[in-house]
């Protein structure tokens, strides 16, 4: 039965890509939910499956035979994995919006910033051009840009931070239920990062929008998210409320991430993902825990059998054989 509190539910999502050398297993049974009005942070190093998860929700995974998708992505009671492309096009931008890592690669270089917002409003909201223009001006002001200076500018005439604000205006244009932010501040300096994240937090709270925030930066998660999902090698290894994750990390991978960060005056700073002794092989993933080759605590069982998700405390789960908690939930 559908959980009315959850606007998005992903269950046992598996995605593979087929290349001449064989099958690359990008996601290997990812499950999570996003509640209405919640901000969920999804963290992990490059290659952990963050971007593939984001693209799969948007229905942007290339079609077979180059890929295979199984599992369930349920948005507001609608199954997305089997939706035709025409129906997904109506959904994208209107009900689920995405903010990409590099706005310069997404914004159309030959269309002005204001016109790009207008087109979204005319297509999804069916607004007349005059009303769409007025709304676009309001949106630019809302994201902290002077519309009179930015409206007619082309992307190359704007700074990286300004382009990201234009992307945010486009994402918010139709008051979507879900915003997927995929590394939205990676290309920006620290000051602009904080401005963009603060703006996104304020605007989504005001509009009661749910946010999936994908990042490798735990310091941003600490100040922005209410719950955290930790991914490694296409799997979820730990999840829980943000305070539990930072104060009581259980998986060795998460512990290593947090050990590399500094906590100064209650704020997490300076995350550097540590280099491991041996990275996972997507073509030949281990039958047990994917982190076992890098884990100094690993025992034989870790390499031979995949652990389930074990309950640490309310809402806090970990996938690790070394967990001393109760029985696993697969």
Characterization of the model:
The chain is of the alpha/beta class and 330 residues long. The chain has a domain of 192 residues: P-loop containing nucleotide triphosphate hydrolases (Rossmann fold, 3-Layer(aba) Sandwich). Helix 4 crosses helix 5, helix 5 crosses helix 7 and helix 7 packs parallel to helix 8.
Helix content: 25-40%
Which shape, going by the Cα principal axes?
globular
Residue share in β-strands:
25-35%
How far apart the termini lie comes to 19 Å
Quickly list its features.
disordered C terminus, 15 strands, globular, 12 helices, 330 residues, four-stranded antiparallel sheet, Rossmann fold, alpha/beta
Outline the fold blueprint.
Layout: E1 6-19, E2 22-35, E3 39-43, H1 50-57, E4 67-75, E5 78-79, H2 85-91, E6 96-99, H3 103-106, H4 113-124, H5 129-142, H6 147-150, H7 160-172, E7 178-182, H8 190-207, E8 210-215, H9 218-224, E9 227-232, E10 235-241, H10 242-247, H11 252-259, E11 262-264, E12 267-269, H12 300-304, E13 309-313, E14 316-318, E15 328-329
Parallel strand pairs: 3-8, 3-9, 6-7, 7-8
Antiparallel strand pairs: 1-2, 1-4, 4-5, 9-10, 10-14, 11-12, 13-14, 13-15
Brief digest:
The protein has 330 residues and is an alpha/beta fold. The chain is 32% helix and 27% strand.
